[in-house]
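assembly run, all chains below
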Amino acid sequence: MPFHSKFYQKKVQHKRFYCAVDFAFQRIGGKYKGRILWALRDGTLRYGELRRHIEGVTTKMLTQALKEMERDRLISRNVIATKPLHVEYSLTPSGKLLIPFIDLMRVWGEHEINNLHSP
Amino acid sequence: MPFHSKFYQKKVQHKRFYCAVDFAFQRIGGKYKGRILWALRDGTLRYGELRRHIEGVTTKMLTQALKEMERDRLISRNVIATKPLHVEYSLTPSGKLLIPFIDLMRVWGEHEINNLHSP
DNA sequence: CCGTATCCGAATAGATACTG
DNA sequence: CAGTATCTATTCGGATACGG
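ok done. output:
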């Protein structure tokens, strides 16, 4: 049960936030959360599939981000008791609300990347 | 000249990024950049005014964020040679493109804050 | 008024090894 | 397969003092 493991106990408390923008950035900030949300936009992915989508991530950082996002109800975690174990991740309704936003970021990012050497 | 000071030289190189989402989060991630963009949405603010808008920020962090955002062409910096000095900050066209995005974040954040104790 | 500089602790991130 | 644990390196962020 992730909510009781020692591993989980880090960062259970949010820092104080001063406004809604601050709050939102605390929830989807960090190095990988945006990319995780984006990877899950079309449905369900297993842990290992996510790991391959998010190039460069370690198990430690991926697990940590996933636990925080589960706690914050952005994603849900579903264990399938096959052998070996399968674990599926997908967006919650709240998480799905963020997809248009991530998409805006992506479009803006592509635009900026294309203009990097011609400003 | 900020582009030549020792202070500026930190973080001149971006880390490697793997996709546009990653790129975008590197540019507006961090603790204060979202709030700075939001504060400048309606026009120009001076350094001290910004500082009062972004409650809790220190001069170090504000200056650092402003320099990075200037380097990334999200904001522009205008020095007015009065005495004492005035320095005005405003959004560039590229920075203005991010406002709808920040607004989405803010709306989502307010929605989430309201549902924190009734999930 | 608008920053710079320095010190230092906290938080974040990576590498590596190991387990049910 | 899906993590956990540990150790270390790097980065971030706050406090404080000072300067043009």
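The interface with chain B takes residues 18-25, 27, 29-31, 34-35, 38, 55-56, 73, 94, 97-98, 100-102, 104-113, 119 of chain A (CB under 8 Å).

The helical segments of chain A are 20-28, 33-39, 47-53, 59-71, 93-96, 99-114.

not gonna interpret more than that til we talk
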